[in-house]
Amino acid sequence: MRKLTGNTLLVATHNAGKLSEIASLLEPFGISVTGAAERGLREPDETETTFEGNARIKAHAAARATSLPSLADDSGIQIDALNGAPGVYTADWAETADGRDFEMAMNKAHDRLLASGAAPPWRGRFCCTLVLAWPDGHDEVFPGTAEGQIVWPMRGDHGHGYDPIFQPDGYCVTFAEMAPDVKNRISHRADAFNKLVKLCFD
Fold it and tell me: Which of 30, 57, 71, 99 is 20 to 30 A (C-alpha) from 198?
């Protein structure tokens, strides 16, 4: 397992919410975070069918372009009653001609749940795979999950993406109703990040 050296890390995302979460998680380690948009990097095509595959594409593209160690995240929500959908297509469900509309995507998920005939509680999970890549082509992979259920109607104004319909196990509030520091301790991204820290930072 390769350790991360230096104090600058590129986070290969154009998603401001993800960048903020990862920057917050890295702050205690004195790591300076820069984002893909700040570096003028384009978003590579995500052509894989797994979170790990897509995260690898983004991490290696950023590392090659900047000569910096690069951390990429691919994440999404899996809903058991929908056979794991939307999964790696989580963001695609939100795509419109004018950008991403996650309220539309959450309505789509709810409509499909109703059409499935499945009775609540609708079990599901957020999944995240972090890939840390170096300019020489080496990488390390860290998967994480947060188990819970899909709830309706949408609740909360914090977070991003599908957070308003996801209630993690052990809590009576959604990710979007939690204070960011609470979510950042228990999220799928935190689970993956804790593994990264243990093996690459400590």
Answer: 57
Tokens 């929500």 sit on residue: 77
What tens-digit pLDDT sequence spans the chain (202 residues)?
A: 888 887 789 999 888 877 887 888 788 888 888 898 888 888 898 999 999 999 999 999 999 999 999 999 999 999 999 999 999 999 999 999 999 999 999 999 999 999 999 999 999 999 999 999 999 999 999 999 999 999 999 999 998 899 999 999 999 999 999 998 899 899 999 999 999 988 887 6
Helical ranges in the chain per DSSP H? 16-26, 51-66, 102-116, 180-186, 188-196
User: Which one-letter DSSP state was computed for residue 200?
Assistant: I
Q: Point out the residues that are catalytic.
A: 74
